Amino acid sequence: MTDDLDAVVELLDSANHVAVMTGAGVSKASGIPTFRDGPDAWWGQVNPLKLLTQASFDRDPGAVWGWHLHKRRLSLSKGPNAAHEVLAALERRPYASFTLVTQNIDGLHARAGSSGVLELHGSVHRARCERCGHLYELDDLGQDDEALPRCPACGEVLRPDVVWFGDDLDARVLSSSQRAFAEADLALVIGTSAQVYPAASLPTLTLRGGGQLVEINPEDTPLSRFADVRVTDAAWADGLLDSLEN
Ligand SMILES: [Zn+2]
Q1: What whole-number distance in Å separates Cα of residue 160 and Cα of residue 62?
Q2: Which residues surround ligand 1, an ion (CB under 5 A)?
Q3: Which of 17, 109, 121, 125 does the annotation list as catalytic?
Q4: Percent of the chain residues past pLDDT 90, beyond the cut
Q5: Cβ atoms of 157 and 57 closer than 8 Å
Q6: Alpha carbons 92 and 115: distance in angstroms, whole number
Q7: How do residues 139-162 score in pLDDT, each as one tens digit?
Q8: 143: number of CA atoms within 13 Å, CB side?
Q9: 136 CA to centre of ligand 1 in angstroms
Q10: Does the active-site annotation cover 121?
Q11: pLDDT tens, residue by residue, 91-109
């Protein structure tokens, strides 16, 4: 195992199928706090275990929508950083396949130019109708913060398209992610503590298929000992952007 950005570049140059998973650490440099970061934390103001559940939404949909709209405004007030940009740049390389899976709900990968991002935990920018299954971009609903958003098709109160505690992941998003990691010859896991399942199990699919694993994270995680290359430098994305441009 090496801690070396050059080694990552070499692996990226020889890979055919690349699968990437990102977590909260990737958005931290944009000023979006992770929930482990103390009093200003992403989840610091409320107990997410209590608020982010279907039961809580059934009881007080306005409060639950309020939290999501707050997070949405926060993410819209921030911009993508070098990590988002380098992943958008990698996608433009002529790989046989390149799949970006994220646990983040802030939409910053798409704003950096990544397309087809698999959002395992949903997005604060979307709402969905539980009655008819429609998905909506909040932008398209002309959402004001006063009233609960309703489904234009059937009139049902919409819920945020975010995976709450106790929810199942979207089966199609999960199976697409599993397929991408299973067929990848190179997996990159970036800015995630690799402790939330099933997201944390995706890289093991790559390893089981004989692929290699790069972990980019300042701290040790349960995945670290399986990584072929580890990068702990916080400035990794700038370094990688430089090597891609040269
Ligand atoms: Zn509906």
Answers
A1: 11
A2: 129, 131-132, 151, 153-154, 156
A3: 121
A4: 77
A5: no
A6: 10
A7: 998 766 678 999 999 999 999 999
A8: 24
A9: 10
A10: yes
A11: 999 999 999 999 999 999 9
